[in-house]
Specification:
With about 325 residues, this protein is an alpha/beta fold. Helices cover about 35% and strands about 25% of the residues. It has ten helices and 14 strands. It binds N,N-dimethyl-L-histidine.
């Protein structure tokens, strides 16, 4: 019987590479910064606050789908698997499934094991019969898991529609890697946000309380800290819009006046109204995402949605 989780840190942050990536993005036309920079300690807290907002429907809608259909999902996926939680964070979403899924082993993957330690320690006390492993890995560029994950049948879990933050080409690449990491008999349980009314979408990403604005603007603090430039929050405003042609919500930071960002070795001038593109959140149709899963090599799929068809959970094997 396991009593303490194990932790393995694979990913090491390379600050020179991060600075290089940030500078290259700022110098691009149009300027962009990867959404991964949104998640420092404050950014992660602001994102947690977003998930509590009435306008941000994805979190509660996905939770309702799991509450209504977890037993059916477990019946199809099979119990006693190794549950691999991609981007586990607080591990809360996976923990809610332990009762029905009865995993033999739980592997929580996040960029840093430090985020996982507390959550996994307390989860282990509540579920001493489940072997637990924390893996610090950045799977956004490539998904590789250490041998300690073991040889049990794998169920990969990727909730929250985080797949929407990848371009469809990168999403396909990640899904192919998930299929290969799952191995023979592997399966994937994934949450996907669906296309809906533009007004509903835009309100979810531009809430009246301005929590999403703070989440986006906080990126400027990260920029200043990592790159050593003096990006002033009051010089920018939050913009969120639904790009119908590409089926994605886009977040931008728009210069309120002409701004020059200077850092050691470079500078970027932004005219008034010019934008830094900070995030895409792709919205799929059920048919479109099913096609993507099949293109990635999954052959059997099942899908559950809420009554309004705002969000979908797919099980693919
Ligand atoms: C993490 N990800 C799925 C969120 C989304 O909806 O794309 C990030 C987010 N950005 C603004 N609000 C929430």
């Amino acid at each position: 019987m396991a009593s303490t989780p194990r932790f393995i840190q694979i990913h090491r942050e390379d600050s020179a590479a991060l600075r290089h990536e940030l500078a290259a993005g700022l110098l691009a036309q149009p300027a962009m910064v990867s959404p991964k920079f949104l998640y420092d300690a404050l950014g992660s807290r602001l994102f947690d606050a977003i998930t509590e907002l009435p306008e941000y429907y994805p979190t509660r809608t996905e939770r309702a789908i799991f509450d209504a259909h977890a037993a059916a999902m477990a019946a199809q996926a099979g119990t006693g698997r190794t549950l691999i939680d991609l981007g586990a964070g607080s591990c809360e979403k996976a923990a809610r499934l332990f009762g029905v899924m009865q995993p033999a082993r739980y592997v929580a993957v996040d960029i840093s094991v430090d985020y996982l330690r507390q959550a996994l320690d307390s989860l282990q006390r509540q579920h001493p019969h489940i072997e637990m492993l924390g893996v610090g890995a950045d799977f956004s560029s490539s998904l590789a898991l250490p041998p300690e994950v073991g040889t049990g049948e794998r169920l990969l879990f990727y909730p929250g529609s985080s797949i929407g933050n990848f371009t469809p080409v990168s999403a396909l690449r990640l899904l192919r890697q998930v299929r290969s990491v799952g191995g023979a008999g592997g399966a994937l349980l994934i949450g996907v946000d669906l296309v809906k009314d533009k007004a509903v979408l835009e309100r979810a990403y531009d809430d009246p309380l301005q929590v999403t604005a703070a989440f986006n603007l906080n990126l400027l603090r990260r920029l200043s800290a990592l790159l050593g430039c003096d990006a002033r929050i009051e010089d920018f405003s939050h913009v969120a819009l639904f790009n119908q042609a590409d089926s994605r919500i886009e977040m931008h930071l728009q210069a309120r006046r002409a701004v020059t960002l200077r850092w050691p070795g470079g500078e970027r001038r932004l005219a008034q109204g010019e934008r830094i593109h900070t995030e895409n959140s792709y919205k799929y149709t059920v048919e479109g995402f099913d096609r993507l899963l099949r293109e990635a090599g999954f052959t059997r799929t099942a899908c559950w949605t809420d009554e309004q068809r705002w969000f979908a959970v797919f099980l693919a094997s």
